[in-house]
Specification:
The complex is a heterodimer of chains A (171) and B (428). Chain A is mainly alpha-helical. Chain A is globular, with a radius of gyration of 15 Å. Chain A is built from 7 helices and 2 strands. Chain A has one domain. Chain B contains 18 helices and 10 strands. The N terminus of chain B is likely disordered. Chain B is globular and about 65 Å long. Chain B has 428 residues and is of the alpha+beta class. Helices cover 48% and strands 12% of the residues of chain B. In chain B, helix 3 runs antiparallel to helix 4, helix 5 packs across helix 13 and helix 13 runs antiparallel to helix 16. The chains are: A mainly alpha (171), B alpha+beta (428).
């Protein structure tokens, strides 16, 4: 009704990926919170096959969806209320979310050793994934392309993220 | 508006078309061939503003003229950026073609019918555009015989081209799409405060050091006017209470017809029909007129209930659902839970005595100025700021960020009953 069924489902799927401290709630505030939610939604849909029915474009900080930007406040509300009906979510989507949460655990273990680095690494990883798989024509060198677009990222970090994506079997 | 005096140094025009907004628009051989395909001619039969003609009688302009207008504006901007060395001249044709085809996947009655298909997990108009560019028998042949890569056209329409500025030219606040539809819709509705200073905006557009589209400081007033004009158009046209009422009613009718009508035409309301139609060349004949054929068929068909037939007549005779409550307001924050709960509460209350399908609630948060997607301005000292930055003295910062639309519509039979019920509710 007021929130369409598709929008509610989309919000629930993102909340399922974020809940139970999968992402520390203290990070989901202000600009960094918006950035993390965008990258989580992007990776969920594009890398883990959890179709949210939204499209992503390249924005200043990498993959960005106008729809997810509009959902941000509701995502936080649902998260705070733990307001998700998991019974109606299809198995393949539940599987995708479970794999994504595993991926986050692995990211913490291998890259984002401090909790406040999670957003930074998600931004690099989601951006690298988009540049490698979705941008057309594909860049000749994905790391060079990333560094050109994000001068604040070091080559060392970009290479670590690329290696991580390969180890996780996503590239 | 005067005919265009722009000429291209990069493209060779073989013919021209007269546009009511921009004057003469030159067409290259490739563009002319694309426009002549049945799938593009279909856009002549899709109105730009869906059901707005039920309020503004002149709003019968089509996605055909809009698409050509977007291509024209894209061409002017691309030529300017090419002259300034920001993009290669070879890409002007690619950008014009992407602009020309950006709306090729629109549904009959545009977003009205798209919402119905999306609800059934059908494709979005962007997904259809991709499929059409690759699979429409005529269009795909023409593109593949040119030197343009169809995937590059698709990537621009989808906002994932390697060059971020190409995506912004067709998918940002100040893109060629908006730069055409705002003045075109203003012209055809007569809502004169929707008019923008298009050529000033284009003249001040440039690319910032980080590769984003930006305007120079001297274009600030024109951009302010653009935001104000758009705000007025949202209120007066795109979210006009009566237009939204008719579009919502049409969706309700389509849902009922899809369930009830026992006819081959009703098959076309199944979400996956459209893919087959594109491959088999049936898609060009699926447009606004088809909706009316469907409605006329439903009116005559025994399988369709009298209730649904009455709804169809309400739409055709312009006696649609009444907007009995409008709680819309402007705000700096999106719609809250309070808003949706209030609207849902009213719906629950009203449907205790009125049938559920006689009540439609409509709610949306319409962004007026998007803080993190707004236009960038190059200041006189060379620094780049979002137009919403507090360091820029602009009226943009006095505009509300959202237009929150909250409305209740009721079948005219029950309108008085519903109004009385609302009054009782308020007194409680």
């Amino acid at each position: 009704m007021v929130i369409s069924a598709q929008r509610k489902r989309r919000i629930e799927l993102v909340v399922l990926a974020l809940k139970d401290n999968s992402i520390n709630p203290s990070l989901l505030k202000g600009f960094s919170g918006k950035l993390i939610v965008q990258k989580v939604a992007y990776l969920l849909q594009e890398a883990f096959g959890v179709d949210l029915g939204v499209s992503f474009v390249w924005h200043s900080y990498g993959p960005y969806s106008y729809e997810i930007a509009r959902d941000y406040k509701l995502i936080n509300t649902f998260l705070a209320q733990n307001n998700v009906n998991t019974n109606t979510i299809e198995d393949y989507r539940v599987k995708g979310i479970r794999e994504f949460r595993e991926f986050l655990r692995s990211l913490r273990k291998k890259l984002a050793l401090n909790e406040d680095e999670v957003g930074y690494w998600l931004e690099i990883i989601a951006s690298l994934y988009m540049l490698s798989k979705k941008i057309y024509p594909p860049p000749e060198d994905v790391v060079d392309e990333l560094l050109e677009r994000k001068p604040y990222v070091s080559r060392k970090d970009a290479l670590r993220a690329l290696m991580f994506l390969r180890e996780e079997g996503l590239l | 508006m005067k005919p265009s005096t722009w000429s291209s140094s990069e493209l060779k025009y073989v013919t021209r078309i007269y546009d009511e907004l921009h004057g003469y628009i030159g067409l290259t051989e490739l563009e002319s061939r694309v426009i002549d395909t049945p799938v593009f001619q279909r856009l002549r039969r899709i109105k730009q503003l869906s059901a707005a003609w039920l309020v503004y009688p002149g709003a019968v302009h089509t996605r055909f003229s809009h698409s050509i207008g977007v291509m024209y504006i894209m061409g002017i901007i691309a030529e300017k950026l090419a002259r300034e060395g920001y993009i290669p001249g070879d890409d002007i044709q690619l950008l014009r073609l992407a602009a020309l085809l950006h709306d090729i996947g629109h549904y009959p009655y545009s977003h009205t019918l798209e919402a119905y298909y999306l609800k059934m997990d059908g494709p979005s108009h962007e997904q259809l555009a991709k499929y059409i560019i690759l699979k429409d028998p005529d269009l795909s042949d023409i593109i593949s015989s040119s030197n343009i890569d169809p995937w590059e056209i698709i990537s621009i329409i989808e906002g994932r081209h390697k060059e971020p500025v190409y995506n912004m030219l067709l998918g940002s606040d100040l893109d060629a799409d908006r730069a055409d539809y705002l003045p075109r819709d203003a012209l055809h509705t007569g809502v004169t405060y929707g008019v923008i200073d298009l050529h000033r905006i284009i003249d001040t557009l440039t690319v910032s050091d980080d590769g984003s589209l930006a305007v120079s400081y001297k274009g600030l007033h024109a951009v302010e006017n653009f935001y104000v004009a758009r705000f007025h158009m949202y209120k007066s046209v795109y979210y006009h209470k009566t237009i939204i009422g008719y579009e919502s009613l049409l969706r309700l009718i389509i849902e009922a017809v899809a369930e009830e009508l026992d006819d081959v035409e009703a098959e076309k309301l199944k979400p996956n029909w459209v893919y087959k139609a594109i491959e088999q060349g049936e898609y060009p004949y699926w447009e606004d007129y088809w909706i009316h054929i469907l409605l006329y068929k439903a009116l005559k068909d025994r399988s369709v209930s009298d209730d649904t037939k009455r709804l169809i007549k309400l739409f055709l005779d312009r006696r649609g659902y009444k907007n009995i409550l409008d709680l819309s307001y402007t705000s700096n924050t999106p719609m809250t839970n309070n808003d949706s709960n209030k609207l849902m509460g009213l719906y629950e209350e009203l449907t205790k005595t009125i049938p559920k399908n006689a009540v439609i609630v409509f709610a949306d948060s319409v962004p007026i100025v998007k803080e993190d997607e707004a236009v960038r301005v190059i200041l006189p000292n060379g620094s780049i700021e979002w137009i919403t930055s507090s360091s820029i003295d602009t009226i943009i910062n006095t505009l509300p960020r959202y237009y929150i639309v909250l409305r209740v519509y009721v079948d005219p039979i029950y309108a008085n009953l519903a109004k009385n019920q609302l009054v009782k509710n308020i007194r409680k």
